[in-house]
Amino acid sequence: MVTFRELEMYKNFDELAEDVIDLAKEILPDQLFCLSSISDTQQMILKLSQNDTAIPVEEGMVINLEDSLCSRVDFKNKQPLVYEDVKDGHALGAFEEKLEAANVRSYLGLPISFVNGERFGTLCAVNDEKSQFDAKSITLLQRIVRMFTYYLDLERFAYRDSLTDLYNRHFLTRFFEGNSKAGGAVFLLDLDGFKKVNDLYGHDTGDVVLKEVASKLQRFTADHPDALAIRLGGDEFLVCFTEPANAAELSERADGLLDSLSDWEADYPLSASIGIAQYVAGGDCNLKELLQQADQALYQSKKSREEPLYFLLSSKLSVLRSGDIG
Length: 326
What we know:
The chain is 37% helix and 25% strand. The strands form 2 sheets. The protein has a 6-stranded antiparallel sheet. The chain has a 6-stranded antiparallel sheet with strand order 8-9-7-10-12-11, sandwiched between helices. It is built from 9 helices and 12 strands. A hairpin with a 3-residue loop joins strand 1 and strand 2. The chain has helices spanning 4-7, 13-27, 95-101, 135-159, 169-178, 194-201, 203-222, 247-260, 287-304, and strands at residues 32-38, 42-48, 62-64, 81-83, 106-113, 119-127, 184-192, 227-233, 236-241, 271-279, 309-313, 316-324. The protein is elongated. With 326 residues, the chain is of the alpha+beta class. Helix 2 runs antiparallel to helix 4 and helix 6 packs across helix 7 (203-222). 32% of the residues are buried.
């Protein structure tokens, strides 16, 4: 799932989004157009055409997805959702009151998805009056959406690991350029015995293991809104926390992460080690040095194989923890 902070790194995103809105207005000039991004629970309005309606919407607004008609758009079959008059017997149920409160009388929603099928968001035309959406206009809007999708996939490819779909080193570098002032921590993780898995079961199985690790990391970061999961390469992964935490909190998170990696269907000869290094708020964080510190902590974690060990590295707290998988 694409994140809002990932969008901030896309080159020329604002310019392209404005072009999408402008082209859409050329096709249906009387409509209010919204370009939005959708998560599992929320919708964010990214770009908005000039609002000449009574509909209370603005750029940057976040809406509960369950309160939006966009939740009904057919992403699976990439089909538009059309209501020329929401009061015309569409059996919208609880939506009717919500739409009336928002002064929405007509709606056209087009799904925007990545090539792999993952949804990005919607391009919507809304109005406080009844509308007519002809087939030609809808087809032209779908072509605009398709071209915008190609752009999104190119940007996504630049920042995502092709095997696991986690963020890659390029994303990590770009992210730290503008997001390291608040302080935080990095968890450097690798799999002990991964080479043996490749030797015993083959590289295809090794890829399956890496994908499963990635899935577990994604579930872990979903429970920690300030966390990002990155694949550095091979069997090395990084979880980056973008808010400060104390030693007890870091230890608890490390335990939770190792616990999430302990449940395997297959009996692979694997174990996991984690090295943790903090970066302080307001400091001049050097990503290369931070990763070196985390690597030192990882080395000590592999070496100790004992209970959690806490010590200071160059005034940045590091936590060492090791644990078995399987």
